Amino acid sequence: MAAAALTGVLGSGAAAGAVSTVQVGTAAVRAIPAVGNPTGNVAVPAAGRAVNTKHPTRVIGHGTPASCTSAAVVKAVAAGGIITFNCGPKPVTITMTATAKVVNTSHQVVLDGGGKVTLNGAGKTRILYMNTCDPKQKYTTNDCWEQQWPLLVVQNLTFKNAYSATKQTATSNYGGGAIFDEGGQLKVVNSVFTGDRCYASGPDLGGGAIRAVGMYMGAVVYITHDTFSGNSCSNGAALSGLYARFGVFNSLFTKNKAIGWGANPASAGTPGGGSGGAIYTDGNHYSLIIAGTAMSGNTAREGGGAIFFVVNAGGGQLKIKYSKLTKNPSGQFQNAPGIFDSVDGADVQPVVVHSTIS
């Protein structure tokens, strides 16, 4: 069965596995071919593809690396719109000394690094934050949970050594070492996450790279042609979702580690956590799609060395298509190799189409 035959299920669109040309400012720049799964070629729905940034709202930098600063990134993200970088002709690393925060009155925020920009958290800073339930970022609806806007799009960027030290409490915005997103919509395309971390324990704390919680359930959280390597957190070392519909296309997950222990709810005498070496998701009535994606060498101290997928009520499916998941050990429990899959209180098997799981 050809990948094109998936379009009825996954949506139409050009294959995302090949090297593509994206627009940054007024010049065309080729995306880095090493990003994402090099053999992933599943068609990506139009909504999951990169945004055209040929005509940016604002540009960070004035043509030199020195002009591209943490403060400039923070200011641009707060202002919103389509944001690109002009840091000179060579790759540049920007050390973030503060978290860039989306203001919820923005309808759309697009941050495009053109394949040449690394945002480095230096082991102590979360890089991006959007929260429709944070009054400091302005309420825009009476019910902030699962509201539709803003839309945050991150593309052609590298996120390195980000860290969220926030512990899990009833009121804290925990998890999401590189990106924390509560509410609205999120899309991440052609990007790399490496060495990103969040707090090491907590039963539901997760997302060394990305945490998406209380998202607009009418849209998919697209992870398209991205690489996640060497990230860690209590759960979901790469991705953590609570009431979020992830669609993961043509991406690569290697050597990510869920390092908590005690699972969820936490066993007596433990801090909890340790599930979903690459991906940890929880919630009601949702599905998770993994397509054209490779996962290897991810680990979990508790369940799901690759994927922890739990639907508490309302039904849903874990669907794995044209993907390869190998050598993702689970420390304590799984019901498929590297996977824990539970729907409505029953252990079930994922839907697997033309994929290798071992």
Fold and architecture overview:
This protein is mainly beta and 358 residues long. It has one domain. Helices cover 4% and strands 36% of the residues. It has two helices and 33 strands. The protein has helices at 7-10, 70-79, and strands at residues 21-24, 27-30, 58-60, 81-85, 92-95, 100-101, 108-120, 128-131, 151-160, 163-164, 179-182, 185-189, 192-194, 197-198, 210-213, 221-224, 227-229, 232-233, 239-242, 246-249, 252-254, 257-258, 279-283, 288-291, 294-296, 299-300, 307-311, 318-321, 324-326, 339-343, 346-347, 351-353, 356-357. It has a 17-stranded parallel β-sheet that branches. A nine-stranded mixed β-sheet has the order 6-8-11-15-19-23-27-30-31. A three-stranded parallel β-sheet has the order 18-22-26, with no helix packed on it. Strand 1 and strand 2 (27-30) form a beta hairpin. It starts with 6 loop residues before the first helix and ends with a strand.
Task: Give the SSE map.
Elements: H1 7-10, E1 21-24, E2 27-30, E3 58-60, H2 70-79, E4 81-85, E5 92-95, E6 100-101, E7 108-120, E8 128-131, E9 151-160, E10 163-164, E11 179-182, E12 185-189, E13 192-194, E14 197-198, E15 210-213, E16 221-224, E17 227-229, E18 232-233, E19 239-242, E20 246-249, E21 252-254, E22 257-258, E23 279-283, E24 288-291, E25 294-296, E26 299-300, E27 307-311, E28 318-321, E29 324-326, E30 339-343, E31 346-347, E32 351-353, E33 356-357
